[in-house]
Amino acid sequence: MDHADKKGLDLGIFFVNSDKVMKTKPYTQDISPLGYTVGVTLDRFIKDKQADFPFATGELSQLLRDIALASKIVAREIGRAGLSHVTGAFGHTNVQGEEQQKLDVVANIRFTRALTKGGEVCAVVSEEENEVIDLQNKTGKYVVAIDPLDGSSNIDVNVSIGTIFSIYRRVTPQGSPISEQDVLQKGSQQVAAGYVLYGSSTMLVYTTGIGVNGFTYERSLGEFFLSHPAIQAPVTGDIFTINDGLTPSVGLGIVEFLNACKRKGRTSRYIGSLVADFHRNLLKGGIYLYPSSTKNPSGKIRLLYEANALAFLAEQAGGMATDGRRRILDIQPESLHQRTPLFIGSRELVEELHTHL
Fold first, then answer.
1. Is 243 assigned a ligand-binding role in the annotation?
2. Is 183 inside any structural domain?
3. Among 73, 237, 316, 341, which one is least packed by beta carbons within 10 Å?
């Protein structure tokens, strides 16, 4: 046996020669760290779950893949934003009266284009567009409501931002024009919802009404992998999240609740990106508050493409979401960009808040 063969035996490698397959002895070192499990890809996970939605016949699965693809492109654009001159204001305001950032426009284009080419969507409601985007797709079964880039003003200071999306089945027959009833549906009618968080890592978290699962993007492989299966929000928590600058202009009940939180030694945490604040509280336990105020008597969070999606996720994870009086998912939208107060997070904290309202 030559030197190469002896070395092969030492490493536990099979060698084949003209005479026989030589047996090897087992590894003498622990190789488990070298062969760690990468995990289940998002595509595989979606495919495995298709049987839960026989009515969809694959369209919903494809739609989720389209959103995932667009999020990868947006993550790339965000990652190089400081070098590609796409930070800062675009020079226009959106229908909310808010100054659009350049990446708001980029993200809106990317998601709209992906949903158009995917072929499963007939209409899109976007924070960045005044009216419904009719994709002129007569066979599309779904309507998507989306905030393409939540918290985009934080881009210039390298703070986490996100995308929020809701998916509804269209109500009117395929082939007919898009109508108001297709678009202005209650959150309880969502068939899927989720968000993408662009932070220290990129995560996609979504639900189809059967639990909540989170996937982390592995850039070198270009794939989302299941990293947070069956997410359950803690029943309570020690975090309360609010823009403290609102305090002088909110109701007395909110102030009483905040004071109670401080007396109990709870921690105040506020990032200013709804997705990032919600994600932290979902995993660690806490409550996010954006009440009505003197400046925004109807609240500030958009019902169709922000509150509904996060409320669906919160409830599927065991949490709770209200406007202070009603379950968010029971509110009938009256306009595309309707705003609402939002109290969302761990069930016991939301219930405690209600005792002060």
1. yes
2. yes
3. 73
Does position 244 have pLDDT exceeding 90, yes or no?
Answer: yes
Asked whether residue 233 is domain-assigned, the answer is no
306 a known binding residue? yes
Report the pLDDT value the prediction gives residue 24, as an integer from 0 to 100. Answer: 53
Query: Is residue 149 a known part of a binding site?
Result: yes
| 292 carries a ligand binding annotation | no
The answer to the question of whether 150 is labelled as a binding residue is yes
270 is known to lie in a ligand binding site: yes
Work out the average pLDDT over 110-129: 95
Range of the structural domain that residue 10 is part of: 3-35
Phi, psi of 120 (to 5 degrees): -100, -10
- 203-237 pLDDT, tens digit each: 999 999 999 999 999 999 999 999 999 999 999 99
Question: How confident is the model at residue 325, as a pLDDT?
Answer: 96
The identity of residue 322, as a single letter, is T
Does 153 show up as a binding residue in the annotation?
yes
pTM for the full model? 0.87
Verify that 203 and 286 share a domain, yes or no: no
Query: 32: annotated binding-site residue?
Result: no
Q: Are residues 253 and 216 in the same domain?
A: no
